[in-house]
């Protein structure tokens, strides 16, 4: 019985199948790379000024809100302006070469371009103020920055990581007085969770895991 396809045709079919498989694998890898937040987990991001949260927060005790001024009222937490930095460094370490970009910014009236460590894709909506005012502490997402000489991301920021929190929201809240404290989360009692859930008027798990909550 004669073969339906010649050897050359069979070879072309095999090569075509392999090429299509390689294309789809490459497409999936490219897609995952495109939606992944900038920088890898535990990678320190280079900054125009070598800023240490360990020194400013851990040693000097600066509150998060001193530099991130809009964290309680806006989606974006805000980055420290030149004037905020100069509130200390107009007197301290004036001759330090490390602070040359700061004084250059003040002299040219050009803002410092800080590089984001936690950077979500554009199709993800995240609001700092909602989380903060619902009792989600800074350390839940940013970890113990007061122990970081160089700021790094400790969370994957992938959708499943966010959903794990949204599915167990009541396990990730604390009294508002503790939201900005740099300390590990202590387990809450059932009564504390009940009281805080009422105070914060938390949404249902179904609402918090709805696609439209984070994708608009």
From TrEMBL:
CRIB domain ranges (all copies): 45-58
Domain of life: Bacteria
Classification via Pfam families: Cytochrome_C7
Regions crossing the membrane: 12-34
InterPro entries associated with the record: CRIB_dom, Cyt_c7-like, Multihaem_cyt_sf
UniProt entry keywords in alphabetical sequence: Membrane, Transmembrane, Transmembrane helix
PROSITE patterns with a match to the protein in the record: CRIB
SUPFAM superfamilies: Multiheme cytochromes
Name of the featured protein: Quinol:cytochrome c oxidoreductase pentaheme cytochrome subunit
């Amino acid at each position: 019985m004669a073969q339906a396809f010649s050897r050359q045709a069979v070879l072309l079919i095999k090569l075509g199948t392999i090429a299509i498989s390689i294309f789809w694998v490459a497409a999936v890898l490219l897609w995952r790379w495109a939606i992944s937040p900038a920088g890898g987990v535990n990678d320190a991001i280079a900054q125009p000024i070598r800023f240490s949260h360990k020194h400013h927060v851990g040693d000097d005790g600066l509150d998060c809100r001193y530099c991130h001024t809009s964290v309680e009222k806006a989606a974006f937490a805000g980055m420290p302006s030149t004037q905020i930095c100069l509130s200390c460094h107009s007197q301290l370490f004036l001759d330090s070469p490390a602070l040359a970009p700061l004084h250059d910014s003040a002299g040219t009236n050009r803002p410092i371009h800080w590089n984001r460590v936690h950077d979500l894709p554009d199709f993800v909506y995240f609001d700092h103020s909602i989380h903060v005012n619902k009792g989600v502490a800074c350390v839940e997402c940013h970890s113990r920055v007061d122990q970081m000489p160089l700021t790094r991301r400790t969370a994957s920021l992938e959708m499943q990581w966010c959903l794990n929190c949204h599915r167990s929201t009541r396990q990730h809240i604390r009294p508002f007085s503790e939201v900005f404290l740099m300390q590990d989360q202590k387990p809450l009692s059932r009564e504390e969770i009940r009281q805080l859930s009422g105070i914060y008027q938390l949404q249902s798990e179904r609402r918090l895991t709805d696609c439209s909550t984070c994708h608009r």
